[in-house]
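Predict the holo structure. Ligand: S-adenosylmethionine.
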Amino acid sequence: MTNQNRQENTWKLLKSLHPQPIDLSRVELIRKANVEFLAQPDNLIDLLPSLGLNDEGIDEFPKALHDDCGHDLRIWQYPIQFAPYIAFLATLKVRSYLELGIRHGGSYIATVELLERFHALEFAIGVDIIHCPAMTTYQSINPRSRFVCINSQSPEFLTLIENLPSLDLVFIDSHHEENQCRREFAMLSQVAQMVALHDIFNIGCVGIATVWQEIKALPDWTCFEFTDQYSGLDSFMGIGLAVKNSRLAEETVCKQL
Ligand SMILES: C[S@@+](CC[C@H](N)C(=O)[O-])C[C@H]1O[C@@H](n2cnc3c(N)ncnc32)[C@H](O)[C@@H]1O
């Protein structure tokens, strides 16, 4: 089977999966919390499970979090990685956000809600090759958010990102295959100031680790890693954040003023 055929089969399979509608009422926990509280990683580590975690691949979550899996926002992230990542983003005052690969939409919604507590977002876009029912409901409570159902490997995706007025942060968490991830970074790094990759430290996603090492070797980007692990489990997930040096310098200058 050629790579192209394998890729097409994967997309066909993805299109047959059905994301769950998620309960958005937990968003209030973020909207009502104090901003100083949310800026502390330890507080976020406690808050994230109460927003609801995903239960696909539940064996990758520690037993202590199993009761928090399978309901509410279905966030598909490790709190011990996602919390310091978000707290770091808070210091960078993110202006716009695109998540490529949103599944049920929970991590996207949590990210958008948290980022907006630290700095107003001009827009937020969730992208997935499969439809996501939660996105319509979410747009009704956050009109700056929109969902685009599109294949990242299609010319339409390129048109979408090239026509954005500006793009500050992208989170790539789509098909965890090396060539697709490399192509997505190549496209998005042309238009975004910051690009985050999910699964840079996952024993099941060696291709993503390879792409992350290539990004770390690029001269114009500074890279940060959020890869803490729960004890007693293999290595899973892991977030890498690459920030353009020019974007990082802006924040440093702001702090000095
Ligand atoms: C691991 S899930 C995303 C999880 C989500 N970011 C979260 O944290 O909850 C991967 C998603 O990527 C989407 N995806 C895979 N290949 C894609 C492509 N070529 N274009 C757009 N979305 C894609 C899948 O449909 C799936 O919903």
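The first strand starts at residue 96 and ends at 100. Residues 49 and 59 are 16 Å apart (CA to CA).
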